[in-house]
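name: query_chain
kind: protein
chains: 1
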Amino acid sequence: MTPAPQARASIWRPRHSVRARFAIFTGISGVLFASVLAFWVVRGQREQLLEAVNASVRREAAVLGQTISAALAERQSQVQQMASLPEVVSGMMEPGALRLVLERTRSYSPEFEWLAMTDARGVVTTATGARLEGLNVAGEAWFVQGSRGVWVGNPHPAGALKRFLPLDADGRLAQLVDVAVPVIDNDGKVIGVMVGMLNWRWISGIHHALTAADADLQHTLLLAPSGEVSVGPSGWLGRSMAPPGLAQVKADGQSRVLSWPDIGEQLTALAPVRWSAQAAQAPWTLVLRQDPARVFGPVNTLQRRLLFSGLAGSLAFMWLSWWLAGKIVRPLRRLAHTARALQEGRPASFEAPTRHPDEVGMLSGALADLHGNLQARLAELAAYRDHLEDKIGERTEQLRQAADRAEAANRAKSAFIANMSHEIRTPMNAIMGMTYLLQQDAPTPTQAERLGTVQQATEHLLDIINNILDLSKIEAGMFTLAAQDFDLPEVLQRAIDLVGVRAAEKGLGLRLDVAGCPARVRGDATRVSQVLINLLSNAVKFTDQGQVTLQVRPLKPHAGVAADGDAPSQHALYIEVRDTGIGISPDQLSRLFNAFVQADESTTRRFGGTGLGLAITRGLVERMGGQIGVNSEPGKGSTFWCTLVLDAAQAPVPVPAPVDVSAIAFARQPGTQAGTASGGDMSAAISPVEAMALLRSRHAGARILLADDNPVNRLLVDELLGMANIHPQIVHTGAQALERVRNQTFDLLLMDIHMPDMDGLTATRHIRALPGCAELPIIAMTASVLQEERDACLEAGMNAHLGKPLDTQQLFLTLLHWLDLQRQRKPGAREADALTSSV
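structure:
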């Protein structure tokens, strides 16, 4: 049936046509979407550009500040070297000789316009070119500040020196920067000031060298703290050039387009420039100016392209909507015409139901579709039943893949824990090491007290870090226990001794009951000691009066005990720590062994702590096949108990041997574990000072190679070994260490693990393959302290492992042991020892 012309024309009228309304609505929506998208994208691009400009100016300011700081530090070092000459310090150098030294320094560094030395009263005694000699400069800022310490001043007019200096290229008087240091005699008295005055042109040259290669930096300005242009257009040097809005840019740090008097509108960003650590010196300001049309040109082009593309896409989508709407509306329109024809009594024709069904045909078609869908569903169920085994196999494969993903996640967590341990321990090594070095420099009582506070705080922080890492390893299921024979009563007594000082300070009694306990067992002595110390420390912390009792007794024979009456293969121990402290309320007992939990918040405020100790203790106890619990009554005390299952000792009880420091072995020996001592634990027998003295007396001047990529670690170890009169050679990578060992002979190597180019493990394997290096002592010195990382060091061929933060006592004793062994291996070692002893 053909629609009438009037009906055909109405399809183009939105008021009478759903098709037209739908097409127009989709077209307008597309235009609006394109506009919003273009605005959002361009705004984001602008913000990114502005942030990039801000980051660029901060980066350039940092580079400029660091470059100028390094240059000034080098010139300051030159002045300090002259001031520390023995002839200058003693006051015995003739003026002419000193003037020659000053002139020579100025010839090496022509940026020095004037070098001079004054006496303690401020009178210039010697100067380059004899300029201003005899002039009293006691009122000059550089003399006043230089008498107190090293001083680097701000640029200032030449003053009395201007008559000796030529004008700058722009006709301005020269600006000078003071570098002054005190001259101190052997009695510690200031006898004068050594000063060098640098021409500001030199600083300007550094700035021009940094900005000349980049076209975006051609209009860069350097403003003095007072706002004058220090580096910039020659016509504006020494003048203030502050366009409207500059103060706001400086206040909030956001780039803006400002109108400059010399080059017009420019996108402007600011950043402070510091090249001196002296608080009295205000920062300078680096001004980055860029053409906004050049900066925002790509963004504006992108906006136009987005708008054009959005408009074209909207038109295309409008046409597509019109076409699709026609496909949808056309059958309805034909049905409406048919209904109207029937209403008017005109004959109406219907197309075949299979193509244009009426209501009955639609119902028939719907029923047919429903039947078809039902048949398809039944076929699918039959197919599912026939392929059930395949489905089970597919599900099994999915479970296997899920298990693989879980294992990969577990490995990733293990790697994360190892990396975090390394990254945290590296700066802790610097803090604790430098604190120890400062304590060795004969500080004043106040300084010693403060350093002690720093040391206690860092040790406490290290304990927290270790606890968090232990808890993470326990929760990840990556915690491994060592297996070695140890003396159980000795471990129990050591735990009592470690908390004894704190108990004595509080006036508490400590009681140990080990009746019936086995003398030697096999297990992880360190972790058993950690469980005991955690429980005892908590008991002492929460007890103000009375006593704390540690009781250990064997339980009934464990399942691992031999049934024929022979010696048991395992020991089940019951450990109990009783105190007379504040006790714990019943509602708090259920969550006491959770991480980061204590009895209540008031307890946390009063007694401190992280709440990790009991959570770690529970994990350790469960790893050792035991259980842990607590019985407590508020106001009467608490009883913490646990059970441990330990293997019977495999080796016979060792015969006590005379104590000898040289017999200490801090690494793997035949028949021993890494980190044990063949001659007993000597870490408590001698102090770090005594260990250092032994090392200095036996091995002063030993040839040691240190390989570490961290400059702070290198400085720390160099200082520590220097105390023992050992000055190691230092390299930064494993490849450098390998090359150095090929060409030189060393007594011992200290090797970091994580280094660029070649890591410490690879370098150790290559060194072991070199002729004559099979027995060369190689000590791992690293922040990688996990058990698997220690094992990797020993498998690579290293002899011992020193974890960071470094234990000074363990460092000295380890070096003493391996240097003694190395000396005994060399021919003539006994004669050299005898000669050293006689000297």
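note: The longest helix spans residues 18-83.
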